[in-house]
Write a structure and sequence with these properties.
It contains 27 helices and 15 strands. By secondary structure, it is mainly alpha-helical.
Length: 731
C-alpha cells in the first residue's frame, strides 16, 4: 500500500469561516513502519502497528514529529511509534495521567493503556476518560486545523463527525466530554451545515438557555433560500425560545393548540413569513478541548445570517400563540374538570369553531336534524319538542337552562346554523310549547352581540308587537321595520340574518306586554315618547291602521305611560304622501270589515305607492329618537314572562371585578355572600347567568390567583369560599 499523504505544517488562523468542500482525490496509503519521518494522518479504516499491537480504525496522527498548532511543543494527539510502551503493566485507571495529556509526555504505562483501548475498538465504556480525550484531540485537529486550511472531502468530514457521535453515545456520562463533543458538533453544524431537513428538530427535554442550534441553522437556511418559514418551523421557533411560556390551554390541549396556531399563522402570513437577512452572521461559541490548538471561541459562517432573534417576527408569533391559547381557554378548563370528557358534546361546543373535528354521534344526530329542517331555506320555524327529540344530549327533564342553550347554540355554530332564541344574544332558554327558529349563518359568524345589536333587537320586538296585531305580518311591514330600525345600524351580515330569524320567532310567538310593563319604569319620558313614534311608524306602514293595531298601540302606549290620544295626532303628523291625489289612506276603528276613518294626505306622491310612509326629514329625526329608545328597551325582550331570577337581577347592575366580565362578576358577588354553598346551588346560579359552572369556577380561581396568589374557593360539594381572598378581590 502506498504511503499516506503527509500533513503540511498548519497555518494558524483566528478568523474561522466555512468554505466549500471540493472533492479531494484519494491517495494511496500504506501501513506505516516503526520509524516515520514527519507525521501522517491515517484515514478511517486504516490498520497500523505500534509496539507489536495491530490497531484498526485509523483516524489518528502517526509519526515522529508534528508541531502543535498553537506553537507550544508537540501535537498532543500524535502517536510516536518509537517511544517506549509498557503493555505488561498498563495504567488502565490513568493514575499517571496529567490534566492536559500528550502522547509524547505520558508514561509508558499510560501509553500501553491508551494503545490497548485503541486496539480494542475504542468502545470500552469503563475506559479512563483521559484516553478518550487524547484520541478526541486528533479529531479536533483534523476538523479545525487541517480541514479549515485545506477543506476535507464530504466523505471524510462525515466519517469524523460520525466518530464523534459514536464516542458521545458511549461516554456521555462524563459531563466534560459530553460538553466538548456536543460543542464540536455544534460548531461544525454552523461551519458546514447539512441540508435543511423538511421538518424542524423536536424540542429538547428540559429547559435550555438558548434556541437549539439545529433550529437556528434551519431558520438561517430558510432565509438564505428566500423560502417562507413553514408553519411547523414557526411553531418550533416560538415555542422553543427560552423565554416563551406556554399557558395551560396550550399544553393541556396541545393538538388543538397546534391546529389553531397553524390556522392563525396562515391567516397572517399565507404560506409563511419570509425572513430578511441582517448584518450579523450565524455563529457559535466553542472552546476546543485540545491544549495544542489555539483556544478558538467564535466559529462563524459568512453565508448565513442570524435571524432567530428577529424581534419583530418573534413578537408577531407570540401574538398568534396568545390568540390560539385564549381561544382554547374554555375548552381547557372543561377538560381540567372532566379529563375524560374530550368527546362530550359540551367539550365540542367549547372548541373554537375554526377547528374541524370529528363530532360524536350525538352531535351528528343534532346536525342531521337541523340540516333536514332547513333544507334549502335560509330559515325555518320548528318546535322545542322537535329539537329535544333529536338531540341525544339534551337534559332528560326536557327543561333547558341557559348553560344548555349555550352548548346547543355553539354546537349548531360549528355546522353553520344559528338558533333563535339564543341566550348569548339576549334570548331566553327555549321552553316546551314554544317555537324555535333555525337559520343559515353568514360566512363570518358573530358569537357575541355588538353594541348596536340590542338596539336592532329591541326595535324588531317593538315593531313586531304592532305588526302582528292584525294577525298578518305583511312584507311591507317587515321591510319598513328593517329600513327604519335595522338598516341604519352598523351590523354584520350575520347579525342581520339573526335579526331576520328573530322576526320569524316573534311572528310565531309574539312577546307579551307583561314584560314591557315589568321593566318600563326604567325609561325616561323622552325615551318612552321615542319608542311610541317607532310603534306608530310600524303600524302605519301598510297604509291602513286596523282596530286590532289601534288596540295594540293603545295597550303599549299605556304600558309606556303615554297618552293614547297621541296615537292619532302622530299618525296625522306622519302622513305626507298618497297613492293618488284623490284616494285617502284610511284607519279602521271597529275591525278589518268595519267602517274606516280616512287619514288626510298631502298632494305630494311617493315612490312607494303602497300606503302611508313618513316624511324623510321627519323619519330621520324619529329614527334617531327610536334608536335611542330601543337601546334602553333592549333588555325588556331578553327574558320571558316569568319573573326575573335573583341571579338575573344581579347581572343587570353589578360592579365588574377586575379581570372578569359582567356575568362572572355577578356570580362572584353572589358566591361571596356566604362561606359555603351546595354544588347544585352554584350550578343553578351559573346556569341563570348563561355560564358553564365548571368553567366559571375555574375562571374565578384563576382570577383570584392573579389578585391574591390564593384560590377563591375550594372543595367540590360543598364549595367553600375563602373570605380573605374574596375581600381582596372586592378591592
Amino acid at each position: 500500500m502506498a504511503p499516506p499523504a503527509p500533513i503540511p505544517p498548519p497555518t494558524i488562523t483566528h478568523t474561522v469561516i466555512a468554505q466549500p468542500a471540493p472533492p479531494v482525490p484519494k491517495r494511496p496509503q500504506r501501513r506505516p513502519g516503526r520509524s516515520i519521518p514527519g507525521a501522517l494522518w491515517l484515514p478511517a479504516g486504516t490498520r497500523f502497528d505500534v509496539s507489536g499491537l495491530s490497531i484498526p480504525g485509523g483516524m489518528v496522527y502517526l509519526g515522529s514529529h508534528l508541531p502543535a498548532e498553537n506553537g507550544h511543543g508537540e501535537e498532543p494527539a500524535l502517536i510516536v511509534p518509537n517511544l517506549p510502551v509498557d503493555l505488561r503493566r498498563p495504567d488502565v485507571r490513568g493514575e499517571s495521567m496529567g490534566y492536559w495529556p500528550s502522547y509524547s509526555r505520558i508514561t509508558p504505562a499510560a501509553r500501553g493503556a491508551y494503545l490497548r483501548w485503541l486496539a480494542g475498538g475504542r468502545v470500552d465504556p469503563n475506559a479512563y476518560i483521559g484516553y478518550v480525550f487524547l484520541y478526541f484531540y486528533g479529531l479536533e485537529r483534523r476538523l479545525f486545523v487541517d480541514g479549515l486550511n485545506t477543506p476535507l472531502t464530504t466523505t471524510e468530514q462525515t466519517a469524523l463527525l460520525d466518530e464523534v457521535r459514536r464516542l458521545l453515545s458511549i461516554y456521555q456520562h462524563n459531563g466534560s466530554f459530553r460538553g466538548y463533543a456536543q460543542n464540536l458538533l455544534n460548531a461544525m453544524a454552523v461551519l458546514s451545515p447539512p441540508p435543511r431537513p423538511e421538518h424542524p428538530p423536536t424540542a429538547p427535554g428540559g429547559w435550555s438557555e438558548q434556541l437549539p442550534l439545529e433550529l437556528r441553522v434551519g431558520l438561517s437556511q430558510l432565509c438564505a433560500e428566500g423560502t417562507p418559514v413553514p408553519v411547523d418551523w414557526a411553531l418550533a421557533w416560538i415555542t422553543q425560545l427560552p423565554d416563551t411560556y406556554l399557558r395551560t390551554p396550550a399544553t393541556r390541549c396541545s393538538t388543538q393548540f397546534e391546529q389553531l396556531f397553524a390556522l392563525r399563522y396562515r391567516e397572517s402570513y399565507g404560506s409563511g413569513v419570509v425572513l430578511r437577512a441582517g448584518p450579523r452572521k450565524l455563529s457559535v461559541y466553542h472552546h476546543l478541548a485540545s491544549g495544542g490548538i489555539s483556544n478558538r471561541a467564535a466559529f462563524q459562517n459568512p453565508r448565513l445570517s442570524e435571524v432567530s432573534d428577529d424581534g419583530r417576527t418573534i413578537s408577531a408569533l407570540r401574538q398568534i400563540v396568545e390568540r390560539a391559547t385564549t381561544e382554547l381557554d374554555s375548552y381547557s378548563r372543561y377538560l381540567g374538570r372532566h379529563p375524560e370528557g374530550a368527546d362530550d358534546s359540551a367539550a365540542l361546543a367549547l372548541l373554537p369553531p375554526a377547528l374541524v373535528v370529528e363530532p360524536p354521534p350525538s352531535v351528528r344526530a343534532l346536525w342531521s336534524w337541523a340540516d333536514e329542517e332547513l333544507g334549502s331555506a335560509q330559515r325555518t320555524v320548528t318546535s322545542t319538542e322537535n329539537m329535544l327529540a333529536h338531540w341525544p344530549d339534551a337534559p332528560a327533564s326536557g327543561k333547558l337552562v341557559k348553560a344548555d342553550m349555550v352548548v346547543l347554540a355553539q354546537l349548531l355554530d360549528r355546522r353553520g346554523i344559528g338558533i333563535e332564541p339564543d341566550v348569548r344574544f339576549g334570548g331566553s332558554p327555549a321552553q316546551a310549547g314554544k317555537p324555535l327558529v333555525l337559520f343559515r349563518r353568514a360566512d363570518h359568524q358573530v358569537t357575541a352581540p355588538t353594541p348596536e345589536y340590542p338596539i336592532g333587537l329591541a326595535a324588531v320586538n317593538l315593531g313586531m308587537l304592532v305588526a302582528v296585531a292584525d294577525g298578518v305580518v305583511s312584507d311591507q311591514e317587515t321591510k319598513t321595520l328593517r329600513e327604519m330600525a335595522v338598516d341604519p345600524l352598523d351590523l354584520s351580515p350575520d347579525e342581520r340574518r339573526r335579526l331576520e330569524a328573530h322576526e320569524a320567532l316573534v311572528a310565531a310567538n309574539p312577546p307579551t306586554p307583561a314584560v314591557l310593563r315589568r321593566r318600563i319604569g326604567v325609561l325616561s319620558e323622552d325615551r318612552k315618547t321615542a319608542a311610541g313614534h317607532l310603534l306608530i311608524s310600524i303600524a302605519a306602514v301598510d297604509g291602513e291602521i286596523t282596530s286590532d293595531e289601534v288596540r295594540k298601540l293603545e295597550s303599549l302606549f299605556q304600558g309606556l305611560g303615554l297618552d293614547p290620544k297621541l296615537i292619532y295626532s302622530a299618525l296625522h303628523e306622519a302622513a305626507t304622501t298618497s297613492i293618488t291625489d284623490d284616494e285617502p289612506v284610511v284607519m279602521s276603528t271597529t275591525g278589518t270589515a268595519a267602517p274606516r276613518v280616512p287619514v288626510p294626505r298631502p298632494t305630494r306622491t311617493s315612490a312607494a305607492r303602497t300606503g302611508l310612509v313618513l316624511d324623510p326629514a321627519l323619519l330621520a329625526a324619529k329614527r334617531a329618537e327610536s334608536a335611542r329608545a330601543a337601546a334602553q328597551l333592549a333588555e325588556i325582550f331578553a327574558a320571558d314572562d316569568e319573573p326575573a331570577t335573583a341571579a338575573t337581577a344581579v347581572a343587570e347592575d353589578v360592579d365588574v371585578v377586575s379581570g372578569l366580565d359582567q356575568a362572572h362578576s355577578s356570580l362572584f358577588r353572589q358566591l361571596v355572600t356566604r362561606e359555603q354553598w351546595a354544588r347544585v346551588e352554584v350550578e343553578r346560579m351559573a346556569a341563570d347567568l348563561g355560564l358553564l359552572p365548571d368553567g366559571a369556577l375555574d375562571l374565578l380561581n384563576e382570577t383570584a390567583f392573579d389578585h391574591t396568589d390564593g384560590p377563591l374557593w375550594e372543595g367540590d360539594d360543598p364549595i367553600t369560599i375563602d373570605p380573605d381572598t374574596a375581600k381582596d378581590m372586592h378591592g
